[in-house]
Amino acid sequence: MRDGKRRGATPSVDPPPEPAPAPGQAARVTCYLFAGLLCFYALLCNRQVCYGDAPELMTAASRLGVAHPSGYPLFTMLGKLASLMPLGPLPYRMGLVAGLFGALAAACVCRLAFESRCSRGPAVLAGLAFGLSPVVWGNATVFEVYTLNAVLVGAALLLSARVWDRAERERSERDRDLRWLALVVGLGLSHHLTYVCVLPAVGWALIRGRRTYLPTIGALLRAMACLLLGCSPWLYFVVRGRFAYDPATCWAEVDTLRAVLRHITAREYGAHPFAFSASAAPRLAARDFVAFWEQFGPLLALAPLGLRGLRRTHPALFDIVVGLLVTNGVMVFGAHGGYTEFFIPSYVCVAVLAALGLGWCCRLPALRRPAQLRRLPLAIAVVILLWAQPDHFATLRPLRAPLAMHYVDRAERELPPDAVVIYSSYWKYPDHLILPLRYAQGVGRRLPRVVLGVNQFSDTGQLTRFLSDVGAAPDLLGDLLRLPAPERPEQFIRRYTGPRPLFTDAPFLIERCGKGGALRGFYWRIADQTGFTLETDLAADLAWVREQLATAGRYDDEQACVATVLLNQIEYQLRTGHPVEAHEAALELGRLCKDADGALFFAATYLSRLGAQPDAWGVWRRLQELLPYAAITYSLKGMLLFKERSYRETLDALDQGYALDHVAERGQVAYLRAMCYVALGDRARAEAAAGPQIWESIRRELQGRAGRPTP
Q: How far apart are CA 319 and CA 314, in angstroms?
């Protein structure tokens, strides 16, 4: 047949494509969306220092220091410019930078939808769905790095769509857009590590779109120059490394090329990109789907329809979007469940695809007449979007600031002016406790003589300066460096003979070391210098924690910080022989801090240690609801089963957790696994599971139980 139709072929069910909107109309709608979201973020922006990484990032930006890996030099310099604006308090005007980038990112999503031949309603909905998603909304009201990452991802997609568009465009225009694309990619690579997932997508588009546009050698060389220009913010570390090291504003010392590369690549974190087993893939896939559902809700169902429509309307953009979704998914597939911000490149794509899917529904033949029905899918989508947001109003308003400032105020009022504070790695979030104090020192110029030790014990250069600052004996440095990093704080406290008073956040360190003062979370108590005589009031502490958590919302960081008071309280009550009070504090810890995984883990551990297995299992069930796909959930389950002497079941639980994360809790997991094999009579497998160092401690423990002398 000459008309190209096969006899008996099924006609396409796809509705006719929407005509491309006028460029002027698309620009106006995008600007309106940007302005509206910017005003919205400005109303909710934090005006005081808060928890999380924001205090540290503000300190680094306002004093031109070095932030935590990967350093974020571009964001640091932009934050410095924002700090110079005379507009409200410093945290507010720096938080406005994140709000500005959040609004720009939503505008990029809206414009991408227009480039994909979306009509006005679905395009605006795409921008709103992205801008009001929990991750973007939450990070657009504090000084955080993720909204800038979203802008650079959206800009790269938009420029890629223009470079390889099928429409008739001059080569000079495509060459210009390619240079802008290279510049944006360079800026993205110098900002956040997850931006590397953009490179395979752009490279795939270059290969697939070569018939539409194949740049000349000269155009490629100019694009490479723009790429290098975009990467130039890394030179900030070279310049910064030539100035004096300031521990209040610098996460690490970047005075050598090796130190710069170590910081840029985040090797300090010891991260493992694929720390999971193939058997855990279904659970990890379910976890990642939940992360997307939390951002978009039922609108997520429109994305597959949009992907089908994008292939017809813009094949080049289809290739880029698919490539970005695949590479971003592979990159963070095994990441910890808390890092939903790492999915931001995929969120940009899903928001655009949801808009395309909504447009497809609006153009269905069944909804063509009457005309009012064409607006029905859009109305339903708006209702879904608004229905998903009330929870944000309750949890994302700026409530974290009073808690953080209360902490700083008490520290300034009750700490000696020349105190030395050693934060123990015993707690899950020590940084979240110390960062508001870092901000108070680095920006507010408060607590000027207080020395805070949190990262120094794992870095030779920082430890050297720390010991010099506090007046420690010169030979102490060599002795500490010969020890593993976790053992150094205790040995430092034991051997410290300097003139400055010592404090720590862990009562067990004071008891073992026999000197120093106790820093109990948000409360400060001075202990006797010759022993562990911490004064405490369980009823007062419980009342204070309830008061704080009544306004803390569902921030897990806040709950984890407040939980430190109860954790120290439990530890104190156990070591002073008051198990009933410890049991009460552990129960309250599990009940009040139900959104902080570390608090739940410790609450269940202490309850099991106290013999309250039913209560411990109740806390574990809360942890399972909070993190159903995390290794910590299965390791805690294994600990509780081990307490009940269910050794086979313990091994099964530990295997499930290990499949999800090979790195997390590896010391405790290895110990439990080895003890299970010992109980089952398999010494060879027990030794293999423990490893040489852990097996030596187990061997000594078993010999001690048997009453035989240890050689």
A: 9
Map tokens 């399972």 to a residue: 624
CA distance 556 to 511: 30
CA distance 284 to 276: 9
Q: Which residue has the tokens 């000696």?
A: 416
Positions in the chain short of pLDDT 70: 1-23, 270-273, 336-338, 363-378, 383, 386-402, 424-432, 455, 506-512, 514-535, 551-555, 664-665, 705-711
Q: Residue 498, SS3?
A: coil
Polymer length in residues for the chain: 711
Q: Are 46 and 403 in contact (CB under 8 A)?
A: no
Contacts of 644 (CB under 8 A, 6+ apart): 613
- Copy the structure tokens of residue 605: 């551990």
Helix (H, G, I), strand (E, B) or coil at 16: coil
Half-sphere exposure of 687 (CA within 13 A, CB side): 7
Residues 681-693: tens digit of each pLDDT: 888 888 888 888 7
Contact 157/348 with Cβ under 8 angstroms?
Answer: yes
Give the tokens for residue 606. Answer: 């202490």
- In whole angstroms, give the CA distance from residue 293 to residue 379: 20
Degrees, nearest 5: CA angle 11-166-378:
60
Pairing mode, if any, of strands 517-520 and 451-453? unpaired
Please say whether the beta carbons of 352 and 126 come within 8 A.
yes
Sequential DSSP letters for 33-102: HHHHHHHHHHHH---S--STTHHHHHHHHHTT-B-STT--HHHHHHHHHHHTS-SSSHHHHHHHHHHHHH
Please report, as a single letter, which amino acid is at residue 593: C
Distance CA 633, CA 284 (A): 14
Question: What would the DSSP string read from start to end of 598-633?
Answer: HHHHHHHHHHHHTT-HHHHHHHHHHHHHH-TT-HHH
The model's pLDDT over 47-93, given as tens digits with 9 standing for 90+, comes to 888 877 888 899 999 999 899 888 899 999 999 999 998 888 899 99
